[in-house]
Amino acid sequence: MDALLAWLHEPLVALFVVAALGFLLGKVKIRGVGLGVAAVLFVGLAFSATVRHVELPELIPKMGLALFIYAIGLSSGPGFFALFRRRGLRDGTLAIVVLSGVAAATIGLGHALGLGAATSAGLFCGSLTNTPALASVVERLEGTVEAHAPVVAYSVAYPFGVLGVLLALLFLRRVLRASWQPDRVSRLEPGALGEVLVNATVRVLEGAPLAGRSFEDATHGLRVRFARLVRGDAAPQVPSPQETLRAGDVVTVVGPQAEVTRAATLIGEGIDEQLDLDRRVLDFRRMFVSAPAVVEKPLADLRLIERFGATVTRIRRGEIELLPDDDTELELGDRVRVVAPRERMPELAKLFGDSYHALSEIDALTFGLGIVLGLGIGAIPIPLPGGGSFELGVAGGPLLAGLVLGRVGRTGPLVWALPYAASITLRQWGLLLFLAGVGLRSGEAFVATAASAEGLRVLGAGALLTTLASVATILAGHFVLKIPYAVLAGEVAGLHTQPAVLVFAHEQAHNDLPRLGYTAIFPIATVAKIVLAQLVLAWW
After folding, report:
1. 65, 218, 227, 297: least surrounded by Cβ within 10 Å?
2. pTM value?
3. Is residue 32 over pLDDT 80?
4. What residues make up the domain containing 231?
């Protein structure tokens, strides 16, 4: 036993034991709710409290934090800045107002209960279940006697930070008599969640509203793509935008079911013939986008029709499928469905890259430069009103750099974006390293505090803050902004940056509307909570 305990004291052994057990525990769900990756923190606390004195180098959690937060910034950048030019600005403002109110309430409760600045900052992060915000606080307190306090407060407040949101969603839905299936969803962005795309074969009829119009004109007001054109006895071709729809033409239309049906009625009539089954002249193929030269550019700039007689009819991005248009910009890791003459397929594969191996690699140059830039930004002192200053640190600096570079996409030959799969892996491992690291260093402090009077005060204050954030968001969204409840549930999940709540809302609604609310709020909520957690610490 002594030999086993001595072996477990080895930093690398302890680190990966905690990461593995925490990951396993995070998979356990009760009624669809689980701790997720946050379970690694709790396993680390338990391991540290039991085995004790694990001397883990400070570099490990810091490195994990930098990897995680920078990858989050890169993936959230486009959505974060898009928020300011769409109707999402209104919902983003709601998130900032609610979170600012919770931060002010945290400071007030901290003073009233005598919790102290570090504990209050951890309380804020735990009641809103936000690990990046906790990371920014821990990093700022590194080397001080209060370094463990925010981790302990976060851990005590976290469980109700999940459960309280679920209870609020269920209770207020009954009180408000809201439906998970709203009658009116006109406020939603078409295609924002990805859609189920279908294709249909349509014959152009004389006198049809779109007969005699060009393909480019025909797509105005319709969210469809034209993939194939057969005219008389001529070989199938990909229609150019300037080509005219003539009576007797047979075309393949791709898009959401409702849009394809509408297009068919405007063009002529649907027929049973399936043009895509004949691949002798025109072929189709899924290709990975792995070539940096084609990413972050509008599809129109690639001139696929003019150069190859080809078109892209669908884009698979992560777990969703998108209908492209000429303004759509490709990202590394996308899978595009290309329709083109068979003999041009090798050239198109070379153009897009079509290399899964390349998507598993990270451009060390741009990734390293981005993190260095973020660390530099994080070291800049930011003055506060009334004196004093704070720094964004290892959490805030790389996040800000990632957001900007994720939006920029590329600078000349430098592509800042990460392939989707690589981004997911970096985020997961970065967060595992950080949570395991801080957990292993805070176990004894957690045991000493959790069962004490201060621990009970933190638990009660955390429950109050969680309830305040959830109820304020739901009531304001329902009565003031008139947000459909299913979307609003996703926004509450995004406000708490809590995937478990999103999964719960999705299962309750039986549709994808919660995910729209989540993706609209998540980027702004993540950034706001990192900044506000620092302000709770600084404005004590």
Report:
1. 297
2. 0.63
3. no
4. 197-358
